[in-house]
């Protein structure tokens, strides 16, 4: 994994500003000019006047029209990518696209069974869904900027998985820094000689170690992961890449009694996203997603980096009106409506 460089970050910020400007009914702006101004501000002296960097386009005539068309095309491609992520994986594969793993949100508080405010818990689950959607937005902006032609699913599926995973990681640690507080991830490698029908339990056990997720929730999550991987069965991952990468996001809300007194509870809700950057060797991946779920033994090689991201709710809510405007412009949906469709929700069965 590698983080964003300053040039890529400037391009993302410029696209976001252009999209927000369009959502407010303003005319399109030259994103290249915006990016150059951001780069100059980051590198120049404090008194540098970035307005000296101007657009090469005229403000009228054919150049203005060309800029309008260019901006409209970019926004259309972005909207298509955002809407595509809401489709079932089988449908995306059928359309020649490599799906991204959808985020999962546990809609039960972690650490308490009773005595909590259900309305408060629901608000926090919603914050996670919405924050995941904003992460998806930044991922797709980067994807279109770095790979504007997309990927050939028949030849470049492995590369597509790896690029999408890296960009999802970059979205969390770059544009969402400040909205999320996070520290260094925990990197672990695994090798198991196991029966194929034991793979799921082994993966779940290592992925969620230390997250306080109980068995009932793990089984529900397993169902969502299984549904996603079934959609990948028709994808061939042959090629030079020896490994396949995925970025898996799991949202949960630990609840802590900050008084320590069960008779006088004051509960603190801590919406948290765990990002699991998961790397599996191509041979293990092919065997894991094949339709044959037998007692055949396989060598399972994979590694993961688990990073804990704690949502800064106040910061997120301050930025939310801007996000809402951009989602309405690009997708025709509110941030909440998009988040409800994007995220896979799991709950304990009543």
Any idea how many domains? 2
Biggest sheet character: 7 strands, mixed
Please report the distance between the alpha carbons of the first and last residues: 40 Å
Portion of residues in beta strands equals 15-25%
Radius of gyration: 22 Å
User: Which sequence of SSEs, written as H and E, runs from N to C?
Assistant: HHHHEHHEEHHEEEEHEHHE
* General shape: globular
Please tell me the overall pLDDT: 82
Q: Can you tell me about this structure?
A:
By secondary structure, the chain is of the alpha+beta class. The protein folds into two domains: 6-78, no CATH class; 89-346, no CATH class. The chain contains eleven helices and nine strands. Strands 1, 2, 3, 4, 7, 8 and 9 form a seven-stranded mixed β-sheet that branches. The protein has a two-stranded antiparallel ribbon with strand order 5-6. Helix 3 crosses helix 5 (118-146) and helix 5 (118-146) packs across helix 11.
Task: Give me some keywords for this one.
350 residues, alpha+beta, 2 domains, seven-stranded mixed sheet, two-stranded antiparallel sheet, 9 strands
Write the SSE topology.
Elements: H1 6-23, H2 31-43, H3 61-84, H4 89-94, E1 104-106, H5 118-146, H6 157-173, E2 180-182, E3 186-195, H7 199-207, H8 215-230, E4 243-252, E5 255-257, E6 267-269, E7 272-281, H9 282-289, E8 297-311, H10 313-331, H11 335-342, E9 344-346
Parallel strand pairs: 1-4, 1-9
Antiparallel strand pairs: 2-8, 3-8, 4-7, 5-6, 7-8
Helix pairs in contact: 1-2, 1-5, 1-10, 3-5, 5-6, 5-11
């Amino acid at each position: 994994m590698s983080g964003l460089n300053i040039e890529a970050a400037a391009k993302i910020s410029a696209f976001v500003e252009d999209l927000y400007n369009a959502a407010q009914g303003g005319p399109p702006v030259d994103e290249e000019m915006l990016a150059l101004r951001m780069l100059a501000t980051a590198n120049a002296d404090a008194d540098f006047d970035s307005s000296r960097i101007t657009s090469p386009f005229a403000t009228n005539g054919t150049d203005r029209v060309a800029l309008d068309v260019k901006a409209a095309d970019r926004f259309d491609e972005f909207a298509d990518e955002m809407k595509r992520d809401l489709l079932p994986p089988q449908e995306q594969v059928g359309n020649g696209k490599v799906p991204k793993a959808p985020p999962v949100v546990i809609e039960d508080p972690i650490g308490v069974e009773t005595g909590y405010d259900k309305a408060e818990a629901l608000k926090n689950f919603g914050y996670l869904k919405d924050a995941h959607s904003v992460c998806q937005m930044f991922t797709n902006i980067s994807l279109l900027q770095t790979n504007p032609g997309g990927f050939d699913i028949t030849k470049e599926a492995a590369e597509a998985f790896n690029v999408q995973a890296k960009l999802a990681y970059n979205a969390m640690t770059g544009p969402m820094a400040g909205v999320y507080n996070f520290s260094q991830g925990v990197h672990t490698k695994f090798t198991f000689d196991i029966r194929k029908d034991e793979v799921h339990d082994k993966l779940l056990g290592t992925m969620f170690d230390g997250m306080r997720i109980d068995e009932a929730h793990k089984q529900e999550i397993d169902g969502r992961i299984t549904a996603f991987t079934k959609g990948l069965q028709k994808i061939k991952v042959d090629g030079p890449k020896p490994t396949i990468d995925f970025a898996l996001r799991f949202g949960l809300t630990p609840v802590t009694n900050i008084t320590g007194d069960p008779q006088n509870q004051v509960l603190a809700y801590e919406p948290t996203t765990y990002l699991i950057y998961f790397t599996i060797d191509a041979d293990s991946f092919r065997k894991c997603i094949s339709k044959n779920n037998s007692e055949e033994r396989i060598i399972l090689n994979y590694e993961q980096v688990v990073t804990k991201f704690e949502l800064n709710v106040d910061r997120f809510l301050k930025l939310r009106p801007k996000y809402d405007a951009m989602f309405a412009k690009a997708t025709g949906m509110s941030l909440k409506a998009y988040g409800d469709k994007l995220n896979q929700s799991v709950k304990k069965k009543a």
